[in-house]
Specification:
With 211 residues, this protein is mostly helical. It has 7 helices and 6 strands.
Length: 211
């Protein structure tokens, strides 16, 4: 959360969220926050760039071949980061990204996670959950699972923005008995809007993303 909030605060985007990497140091290359998809060449560039610079188990559906088509609405890399953040959160909870995780559904090891090979079919499939009745099914609250599902919305147009995710996180913290200082929450929201919208100073970075 800190890394992704940092990226919005300074209006830069990390496209390689992975639990194995020091995210804030992963400044491989940069480009525009919004990518036009007006022709086939741009579509191919998006796919090839993602294959070269992103970690497959943390890559959203729109960055795979067939994920976008020429003439589609611009690709918003901020939504890409929300997906990757959801994968990272899942991996923090269970030990692997959702596209390389399977849970044993029966026997003595019911609910045990198995790490499997990531594929595009796994990415566009449902988010895996521990089977009911297994110990792992009771590790986390329904609200926590809903937060993961919220971030891993397949449709990029329906996927939430980071500010919406932060609000859900704050709600979850309150449900668990935690306290969010009102001025902190308000400042986060204002910083997110102001830094993305401004044209001066640090907002010069708002035209950049980090791969």
């Amino acid at each position: 959360m800190v890394a992704s909030y940092f990226s919005s605060l300074f209006a830069v985007l990390f496209q390689d969220f992975a639990d194995k990497q020091p995210i804030l140091m992963d400044f491989g290359s940069c480009g525009s926050l919004l990518q036009s998809i007006s022709d086939r060449r741009q579509v191919m560039n998006i796919v090839e760039n993602a294959a070269e610079h992103t970690t497959m188990p943390y890559r959203p559906p729109e960055l795979f071949e067939g994920g976008v088509r020429a003439g589609d609405a611009d690709l918003d890399y901020r939504k890409v980061d929300v997906w990757s953040l959801g994968c990272t959160f899942f991996a923090m909870l269970y030990g692997a990204s959702p596209s390389e995780a399977e849970f044993t559904t029966s026997g003595r090891n019911m609910g045990k996670l198995r790490v499997v090979e990531c594929s595009q079919l796994k990415v566009i499939g449902p988010v895996p959950t521990p089977p009911l009745g297994s110990p792992a099914a009771n590790w986390y609250s329904a609200s926590t699972q809903q937060l993961i599902d919220f971030m891993l919305t397949q449709d990029r147009h329906q996927r939430p923005e980071l500010n919406q995710v932060l609000k859900r996180v704050e709600q979850l913290i309150r449900e668990m008995g935690g306290v969010i200082e009102p001025e902190v929450s308000h400042r986060r929201a204002n910083n997110y809007q102001d830094n993305v919208a401004d044209d001066d100073g640090i907002a010069l970075l708002s035209t950049n993303r980090l791969l």
